[in-house]
Amino acid sequence: MSEYLLSLKAICRTYQSGEGALTVLNGAALTLAPGEIVALVAPSGSGKSTLLHLAGLLEKPDAGSVIINGQNAGDLNDTGRTALRLKHVGFVYQFHHLLAEFTALENISVPQMIAGVPQSRANQRSLELLEKFGLGPRASHLPGKLSGGEKQRVAIARALANNPSLLLADEPTGNLDVATANIVFEELLHVVRSENTAALIATHNPDLAARMDRQITLRDGRLV
Description:
Blueprint: E1 6-17, E2 20-32, E3 37-40, H1 48-55, E4 63-68, E5 71-72, H2 78-88, E6 89-92, H3 104-114, H4 119-132, H5 148-160, E7 166-170, H6 178-194, E8 198-202, H7 206-209, E9 214-216, E10 218-219, E11 222-223
Parallel strand pairs: 3-8, 3-9, 6-7, 7-8
Antiparallel strand pairs: 1-2, 1-4, 4-5, 10-11
């Protein structure tokens, strides 16, 4: 394994619109070690989501390098990038995006089975994660029968289901009330640490950010 799970080097990203060019990232750089949990704290519109999408290989930078576990994504074709993302990256969004027709357990098992894990083993892993998030008794419930906090726990468990070495989270508790957000976030940190997963977590909440190993912010397109 590389010394760093994630390395971003001189990342640049500019979007074209009817009003002209908008440079969101301009030489952004970051290293993230295995097991390290880093808070990304920056105002809306500063480029947090763009940075996470680039780190998770959902977008390509205009310039610079995204290196995951020693592999430069720029050296890969689309198939290779997809394989690298599926092997190493889990993503959590602000909204849970659960499949309404599947139970909590099934929502976590499906990504594993797509990756080739036998159903029995996938279900076992799913139940273990649900229990870690205090949701063992809710395994057979459809999303419509779960609270907002429970749905987001399931979404986080789904992101961790394939044992990613890197977790990227974009305001994972931003859609929850303060009390629920605190509970879900504590469980997220506990499980991520127990799985020794590197994590980059965007949040507006300074109290949540203070619980992580270190904090970074975006300023003029760079990470500081």
